[in-house]
Amino acid sequence: MIDKSAEELIVDSVKARFPEEVIEAKVQRKNRVSISVRNNRIYDVGLFLRDELEFDHIASVSGVDYIDMNEFEVIYYVWSINKKVLVGLRTKIPRDNPVLKSLVDVWEGVLYHEREVWEMFGIKFEGHPNLSLLLLPEDWDGPPPLRKDFVLPETHQERLEEKIKKLSSG
Amino acid sequence: MLQKAKDGLMDIKLFRRVMNWGKAWSLWSVHLETGCCGPEDMARACARFDTERFGTLPFPTLRECDLIFVTGFVTKKMAKRLKIVYEQMPEPKYVIAIGHCAISGGLWWDSYSVVQGVDEIIPVDVYVPGCPPRPEAWIQGIRMLQEKIAKEGMRKK
Ligand code: SF4
Question: Least C-beta-crowded within 10 Å: which of A7, A98, A131, B115?
Fold first, then answer.
């Protein structure tokens, strides 16, 4: 029998522990694992990854806007420093009601990352202590700018044309 | 002899020339990097291109500076800070806009977060295009600013 690699062992144990919730778990390549879970159990899967599989370093949180499918995807990238494996923990939430349980209690490092996903995509993280603007200007009042249906204010184009005229004449 | 020197000092044209000469050759620049033209700023200040030959020395306190290089794009959040820096500098002060992004928004002209050209916030004296401009272009910009200062009147700035 061939020994299983660390990546395959991770996939197997997550599948065995959460047979219902895990939609897909696969090894992408060496050191990379992708796990998609249902959005209501992402907190438990996170806890399991942290406590039993030594995933201790949160590298990033990102959002994807699948506007055709009317869904957002949130991806947590977590490293295990001992095993040298990066897990992409993904979950999909409906676009009309983008609410997800925050993983702050699991990995404290998501504080800033979730704030960024909140301001860029408008995804609410329940239980996050401080959802306020991080990178956008303090007086930002438009919709979340990285959503696919975001349009620039019309004055933007006009101002640019004015400017081109001014620069080329002077 | 003394009389001659006195007359010379009283001569407003000569006085202005001396003053402008002094202004033009001691353009100390604020250390403020807004965009990714910033590394080029370090290149032009270091030994190889050495803009201190032209009197342009990067300096940490803005109270003693006369010049801002706006290095690249300015986000809307940075714009406010840039204005504060500009207003805190004593007169005379000059601004050189470096790179396409500082001139018109460049790559990010249709972005939600980038100002379309820094001249919407502070007055600009010289524009240096490029993405990013080579240090030689920076030096040309400095020289153009010096020529501009040399033509300045007494009252202006
Ligand atoms: S002009 Fe080019 S190098 Fe300079 S800030 Fe813009 S993109 Fe960056």
Answer: A131
